[in-house]
C-alpha cells in the first residue's frame, strides 16, 4: 500500500503522466472514451489497493485483476507500464501486427494480464470461477477484482454470476462497474441495487474522485462480495 506521507506528491506526478503514456499509443481504433472512462479507477486500484507487482505476477497469493471491459485498453496498458509490468517502449506499437498490446488484452502476451478480453459479459463469470478455484485450493486471502462496463449488464451471463456470488458468500470477489450511461436496461434504484438485491455489498461513487474510489474499494463486506459502481461522464 502507498505510504500515506509521500502519496499526495507521488500520485499527482505519476497519475498525470498517464496522459503522456496514452498519447504514445497511436494505433487506430483506440476507443478513447472507453479507455478514459476507466483511467481513474484503474489508477487507484493499482496504486493503492491491488496486492500484485511485476515481481509477484506468478505468486499464488497475489490479488487477481480481470479486465472484462477490454475494448479500448490503452488506460490499462498505461497503468501497467506506469507500475513497471512492462516498459513504455512497447506502447507506440499498440495495435500493430507484431505488438503484444492488441485492441483487446491477451493474457499470454501482456505481462500482468490475468485474462484475454473479448466478448462482453464474460469477465464476471470468470471472476466467480477464479474465486471458486482459489477456494478449492485453500487460498482464501487473495482478492479477485473484475472491471466491467455498465453495458455488459445487458448480458445474461453477468446476472447468472451475480445471482450465484451473493448467496455463495464469495467475499473474495470484487466487481467494479464503470457506469457511463451505456446500458440499454436499468434497475429501480440504479445499478448498485441490482447487486444488493442478490446479497452483495454495493457502493456507488464518483468515478473521478480518487479518495472516494479508495474508500469504496476498501469498504468492509464480511461474508459478501463487493460491487463498486463508479459513475463517470456519459459516453458521447
What attributes does this structure have?
236 residues, alpha/beta, Rossmann fold, five-stranded parallel β-sheet
Helix content: 25-40%
- Whole-number total of structural domains: 1
**Beta strand %:** 5-15%
Sheet with the most strands?
A: 5 strands, parallel
Distance between the ends? 35 Å
- Strand line-up of the largest beta sheet: 1-2-3-5-4
Q: Shape, please?
A: globular
Low-confidence segments: 1-13
Report the mean per-residue pLDDT as an integer: 89
State the CATH superfamily name. Answer: Thiamin diphosphate (ThDP)-binding fold, Pyr/PP domains
The overall strand count is: 5
CATH topology name, in short, is: Rossmann fold
Rg over CA atoms, rounded to whole Å, is 17 Å
Please, could you describe this protein's structure?
The chain is an alpha/beta fold and 236 residues long. The chain contains 7 helices and 5 strands. The chain has helices at 7-23, 32-49, 74-82, 123-136, 156-165, 191-196, 210-217; strands spanning 64-67, 144-149, 173-179, 201-206, 226-231. It has a 5-stranded parallel β-sheet with strand order 1-2-3-5-4, sandwiched between helices. Strand 2 (144-149), helix 5 (156-165) and strand 3 form a beta-alpha-beta unit. The chain starts with 6 loop residues before the first helix and ends in a 5-residue tail after the last strand. Residues 1-13 have low confidence and may be disordered.
Question: In short, what is this structure?
Answer:
The protein is α/β, with parallel strands linked by helices and 236 residues long. It is built from seven helices and five strands.
Amino acid at each position: 500500500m502507498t505510504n500515506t506521507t509521500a502519496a499526495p506528491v507521488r500520485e499527482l506526478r505519476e497519475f498525470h503522466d498517464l496522459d503522456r503514456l496514452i498519447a504514445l499509443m497511436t494505433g487506430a481504433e483506440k476507443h478513447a472514451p472507453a479507455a478514459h472512462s476507466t483511467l481513474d479507477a484503474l489508477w487507484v486500484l493499482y496504486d493503492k489497493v491491488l496486492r500484485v507487482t511485476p515481481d509477484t505476477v506468478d505468486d499464488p497469493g497475489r490479488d487477481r485483476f480481470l479486465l472484462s471491459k477490454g475494448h479500448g485498453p490503452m488506460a490499462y496498458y498505461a497503468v501497467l507500464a506506469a507500475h513497471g509490468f512492462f516498459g513504455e517502449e512497447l506502447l507506440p506499437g499498440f495495435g500493430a501486427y507484431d505488438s503484444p498490446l492488441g485492441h483487446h488484452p491477451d493474457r499470454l502476451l501482456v505481462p500482468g494480464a490475468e485474462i484475454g478480453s473479448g466478448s462482453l459479459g464474460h469477465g464476471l463469470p470468470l471472476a466467480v470461477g477464479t474465486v471458486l478455484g482459489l477456494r478449492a485450493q485453500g487460498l482464501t486471502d487473495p482478492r479477485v477484482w473484475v472491471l466491467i462496463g455498465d453495458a455488459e449488464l445487458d448480458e445474461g451471463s453477468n446476472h447468472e454470476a451475480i445471482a450465484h456470488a451473493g448467496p455463495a458468500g464469495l467475499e473474495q470477489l470484487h466487481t467494479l462497474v464503470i457506469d457511463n450511461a451505456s446500458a440499454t436496461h436499468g434497475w429501480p434504484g440504479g445499478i448498485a441495487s441490482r447487486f444488493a438485491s442478490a446479497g452483495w455489498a454495493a457502493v456507488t461513487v464518483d468515478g473521478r474522485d480518487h479518495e472516494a474510489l479508495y474508500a469504496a474499494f476498501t469498504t468492509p463486506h464480511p461474508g459478501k462480495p463487493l460491487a463498486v459502481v463508479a459513475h463517470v461522464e456519459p459516453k458521447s
